[in-house]
């Protein structure tokens, strides 16, 4: 029996009276590639912050794997949550710039190493690291300092770091923001490969609707801290509530809202509604 | 401190001869250092010069710890005087008690207590230092314990960079002020001095002073070897990772507070051992040697030589110590300003210190070259 994946019930996050996440229920099962979308300020990143322990939250977040039943994550410190097999990336790629690609991956693979191993020098390349280099296509660059990598390569390195960590839940915050078209394609294929492993659960926060349509297996729309709609890409696009939110924003703010939501330097991203009407 | 740190990766060697050179560079350099310290210096230097070198090497031992905590871990340890002082006073208290016992008078107090003290019994916290094993262990373990306690609270509360530096500095000031106020039990401003013997050996005998020098030189080499192992170990890589992005390390399942704590505690132990060996070599430990100014001095040597490089930090510490004793005699007022200027220049313009000078020049030259080339292309 495969574990039940991520189960969120009544999640609530407030900052000084402002409620960023307002009673979210969410289930993501292993093998899924779930996209979290929504207008700016919908609470997407805050939701991920709450799951990974970065912000204080109330409610319940459980994550169950095939090895163990879901333990409650709320109230646990960041590094303990990470050790339960939950990993994330950030909007701006955060890698250890002064260390090589190989060293970055080796550190990611090493939480839980004993003190004696830590005090010794690394010999060779651990299997998991070699595999992650292969999967992310960074084998050639392994001895380069991570700081000199291109933007897209840094994001892939981050995903590779999650893979060697052997995380069961990957939470990716806008992994393709600022990427070229080719880099987007490569990233999407990488995410599909990663989520094919039925032990893994992948959640992607994304603003880019083309990217979402091309690679999402399921979609959750957040709006004003609440779940607005959930289902397949087609179901979500056909949902009148979703259309209202995106259309309403478009009406209120003219064409600025979708453009602001899209990645910088790209053509204004079509909203789900717009494309639903096209179809 | 993350953006201004020295590069830690060396480019992969190209040819077989370069690879062979790379393999023998570290053991070869270590052997060379050992020959210089253990054979050349004792033969070439007079007793007076050798004693001065012994003092500089003690400061260099502190720099080894600074190179680990600051150079690798990004922890600006501006209060190493606390740990140097704890080690020094632990050793000095033992030597004072041993001297008093040697007088043959039962229950004799150390000389300064007879002068300034109440003339009553030995303070309870002095008593255990009569035991040589306890005192020796305390020179290293006491600073480490204090650092562990301090670091536990400071790093868990996520006190960082500038605040951490100010806190360390304040502690050094506090310890020095407290010692000055305790004339009767610590010797006050005078500190503890005028030691006769060192574990049964007469400290006035030049031969024994040479032995003290050898103990210090060997200790420095051992500390450098230990630090080098930490640098190249997985722990060393993790420490750099924590300096680069503490938050990211946390999301990988490590507790960065513990990673920093190890570097801080090890550096404190090294400073403690340095302080302990400083006492027989120089013959005094006093608040003036462990307060704010000397604490900054411990860091300046490493900054000038190169905090990211072990050898750079050690040579920098020795050079700055030498410059201090040479120049401060000739221009006592100017030295303080020069010291401050050196620190600012090193941190501001050459963050890798003199050790990185070669790499910086090479990088600039290649940048000019590629610049010309791309200019031609355009």
UniProtKB/TrEMBL annotation, chain A:
EC number: 3.6.3.-
Entry keywords, A to Z: ATP-binding, Hydrolase, Nucleotide-binding, Transport
Listed InterPro entries: AAA+_ATPase (IPR003593), ABC_AA/LPS_Transport (IPR051120), ABC_transporter-like_ATP-bd (IPR003439), ABC_transptr_urea_ATP-bd_UrtD (IPR017781), BCA_ABC_TP_C (IPR032823), P-loop_NTPase (IPR027417)
Presence of keyword ATP-binding: yes
Recorded GO CC terms: plasma membrane
Domain of life the protein comes from: Bacteria
Designated name of the protein: Lipopolysaccharide export system ATP-binding protein LptB
Automatic annotation (TrEMBL), chain B:
Protein location: Cell membrane
Gene Ontology MF terms in the entry: branched-chain amino acid transmembrane transporter activity
Keyword Amino-acid biosynthesis belongs to the record: no
InterPro entries, sorted: ABC_transp_permease, ABC_transptr_urea_perm_UrtC, LivM-like
GO CC annotation terms, alphabetical: plasma membrane
Record's keyword annotation contains Transmembrane: yes
Record's keyword terms, sorted: Cell membrane, Membrane, Transmembrane, Transmembrane helix
Broad class of the protein's primary localization: membrane
Residues that span the membrane, as ranges: 26-45, 51-70, 75-95, 133-155, 162-181, 211-231, 252-271, 277-301, 308-325, 337-361
Lipid bilayer topology: Multi-pass membrane protein
PANTHER family: HIGH-AFFINITY BRANCHED-CHAIN AMINO ACID TRANSPORT SYSTEM PERMEASE, SLR1201 PROTEIN
The protein, known as: Leucine/isoleucine/valine transporter permease subunit
Organism for this UniProt entry: Streptomyces jeddahensis
């Amino acid at each position: 029996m495969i574990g039940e994946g991520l189960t969120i019930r009544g999640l609530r996050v407030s900052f000084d009276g402002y409620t960023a996440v307002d009673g979210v229920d969410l289930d993501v099962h292993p093998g899924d590639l779930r996209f979290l979308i929504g207008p700016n300020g919908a609470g997407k990143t805050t939701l991920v912050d709450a799951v990974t322990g970065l912000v204080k939250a109330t409610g319940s977040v459980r994550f169950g794997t095939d090895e163990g039943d879901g333990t409650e994550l709320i109230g646990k410190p960041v590094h303990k949550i990470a050790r339960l097999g939950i990993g994330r990336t950030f909007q701006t790629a955060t890698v250890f710039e002064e260390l090589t690609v190989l060293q970055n991956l080796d550190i990611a693979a090493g939480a839980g190493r004993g003190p004696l191993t830590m005090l010794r020098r690394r010999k060779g390349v651990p299997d998991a690291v070699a595999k992650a280099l292969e999967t992310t296509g960074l084998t050639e660059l392994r001895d380069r300092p991570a700081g000199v990598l291109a933007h897209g390569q840094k994001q892939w390195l981050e995903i590779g770091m999650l893979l060697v960590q052997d995380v069961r839940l990957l939470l990716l915050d806008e992994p393709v923001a600022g990427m070229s078209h080719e880099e987007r394609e490569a990233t999407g294929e990488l995410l599909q490969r990663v989520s094919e492993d039925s032990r893994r659960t992948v959640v992607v926060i994304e603003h880019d609707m083309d990217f979402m349509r091309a690679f999402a297996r399921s979609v959750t729309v957040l709006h004003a801290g609440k779940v607005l709609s959930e289902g397949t890409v087609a179901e979500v696009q056909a949902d009148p509530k979703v259309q209202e939110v995106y259309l309403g924003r478009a009406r209120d703010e003219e064409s600025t809202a979708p453009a602001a939501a899209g990645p910088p330097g790209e053509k204004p991203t079509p909203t789900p509604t717009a494309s639903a009407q096209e179809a | 401190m993350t953006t201004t740190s020295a590069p830690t990766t060396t480019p992969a060697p190209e040819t077989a001869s370069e690879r062979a050179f790379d393999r023998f560079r570290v053991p070869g350099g270590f052997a060379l250092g050992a020959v210089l310290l253990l054979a050349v210096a004792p033969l070439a230097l007079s007793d007076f010069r050798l004693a001065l070198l012994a003092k500089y090497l003690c400061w260099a031992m502190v720099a080894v710890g600074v190179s680990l905590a600051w150079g690798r871990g990004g922890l600006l340890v501006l209060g190493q005087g606390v740990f140097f002082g704890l080690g020094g006073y632990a050793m000095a208290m033992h030597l004072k008690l041993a001297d008093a016992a040697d007088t043959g008078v039962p229950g004799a107090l150390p000389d300064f207590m007879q002068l300034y003290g109440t003339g009553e019994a030995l303070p309870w916290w002095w008593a255990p230092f009569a035991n040589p094993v306890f005192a020796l262990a305390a020179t290293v373990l006491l600073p480490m314990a204090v650092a562990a306690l301090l670091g536990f609270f400071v790093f868990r509360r996520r006190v960082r960079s500038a605040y951490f530096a100010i806190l360390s500095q304040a502690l050094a000031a506090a310890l020095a002020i407290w010692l000055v106020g305790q004339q009767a039990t610590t010797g006050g401003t005078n500190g503890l001095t005028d030691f006769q013997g060192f574990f049964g050996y007469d400290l006035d005998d030049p031969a024994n002073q040479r032995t003290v020098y050898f103990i210090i030189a060997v200790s420095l080499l051992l500390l450098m070897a230990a630090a080098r192992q930490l640098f190249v170990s997985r722990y060393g890589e993790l420490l750099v990772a924590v300096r680069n992005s503490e938050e990211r390390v946390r999301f990988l399942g490590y507790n960065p507070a513990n990673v920093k704590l190890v570097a801080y505690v090890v550096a404190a132990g090294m400073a403690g051992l340095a302080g302990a060996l400083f006492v027989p070599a120089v013959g005094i430990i006093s608040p003036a040697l462990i307060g704010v100014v000397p604490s900054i001095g411990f860091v300046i040597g490493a900054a000038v030589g190169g905090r990211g490089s072990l050898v750079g930090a050690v040579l920098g510490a020795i050079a700055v110590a030498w410059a201090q004793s040479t120049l401060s005699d000739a221009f006592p007022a100017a030295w303080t300003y020069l010291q401050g200027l050196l620190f600012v220049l090193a941190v501001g313009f050459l963050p890798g210190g003199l050790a990185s000078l070669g790499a910086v020049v090479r990088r600039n030259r290649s940048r000019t070259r590629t610049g010309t080339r791309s200019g031609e292309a355009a």
